Amino acid sequence: MNRRRLRLLLFVPPAAVVGVVVVWGLVGMPSFGSPPHPYAAYLLGHVVGRRHVTNIPAAVVFDYRGWDTLGEELILFTSVMGTALLLRTSRDVPEDRPRDRTASAAVRYTGTLLVPVTLLLGLWTVAYGYLTPGGGFQGGIVCAAAALQIWIAGSYRDHRALTPTALLDTAEGSGAAAYLAVGFAAMAAGQAFLAGFLPAGTTGTLLSGGTIALLNWATGLEVAAAGVLIFHEFLEEYIQTVPRPHAHGENRAHGENRTRGEEP
After folding, report:
1. What gap in Å lies between CA 225 and CA 168, rounded to an integer?
2. Which of 28, 51, 131, 168 is the most exposed place for a label (fewest CB within 10 A)?
3. CB of 235 within 8 A of CB of 89?
4. What residues contact residue 193 under an 8 Å CB cut-off, 6+ apart?
5. Helix, strand, or coil (residue 197)
6. Which helix (H) or strand (E) holds 123?
7. d(Cα 144, Cα 129) in Å, to the nearest integer?
8. How far is CA 183 from CA 76, 126, 194, 214, 264, in A?
9. What was the pLDDT predicted at 92?
10. pLDDT score for 90
């Protein structure tokens, strides 16, 4: 039995089970326009008055179901950490990385201008996540995209220089630890783990939501750092395929990617 057939045999049965479960779940969903579930009705009637946040999903994610979000954060943290450890130990990181600077002046200038705009959009999405649609997960990904734009508009060297791995490792761990710290602080204040123990503040302002705001920012920090770390590892794999300079000082060959060229 060849490897291809073996892989199919290992893939098809669990894929079929997952497919059946997904179809079963979709068939069982309520029809469009049906009355809201009692849990949803409760949230719609109480979140704004009790938590003083105007984005109800944020209250669900960072308050009523804060335990679920903690699990998601730890899953992301563990998966990124495992990916980094696996890839970092399985390759020899070159000391002199090739220059893969983009050849298009339009991409360089436009991309460079968009980096701060994208970062500002990400921070805004995190900051106002419990007032308008957004939040730590969404804003964190947008902030990570700003770091990726540095590579798109410049080069991998620029990307790594402006996003040092040591800082990102610390940021990712700090984001996950901060989420746990808020939970333990609630217990120290005599409340349940992750229960809101800070004043709810004024509805419609950034000083609202109590601990929801803290957990939102902790999530944004962890997600942003995790996203950039994943980009680091995948780009490190890519950069090793870029032609190296020849031993006798010949010109560098152009990369295979037609949107990128070699810096002289």
Report:
1. 5
2. 28
3. no
4. 67, 183, 184, 186, 187
5. coil
6. helix 105-127
7. 17
8. 18, 20, 4, 11, 53
9. 58
10. 65
Residues 162, 165, 168, 172, Cα dihedral to 10° = 160
Tokens of 104: 């298009």
**Cα–Cα distance between 5 and 88 in angstroms, integer?**
31
Long-range pairs for 203-208: beta carbons < 8 A, 24 or more residues apart = 203/48, 203/52, 203/53, 203/54, 204/54, 204/131, 205/131, 206/127, 206/128, 206/131, 208/52, 208/53, 208/130, 208/131
The dihedral of CA 108, 152, 129, 179: what is its sign?
negative
**165 exposure class (CB count in 10 Å sphere: 0-12, 13-18, 19+):** middle
* CA–CA separation, 102 and 36 (whole Å): 51
Domain coordinates in residue numbering, the chain: 57-239
d(CA 177, CA 179): 5
d(CA 19, CA 22): 5
Q: What does the pLDDT read at residue 248?
A: 40
Residues 222 and 73: beta-carbon distance below 8 Å: yes
Helix (H, G, I), strand (E, B) or coil at 208: strand
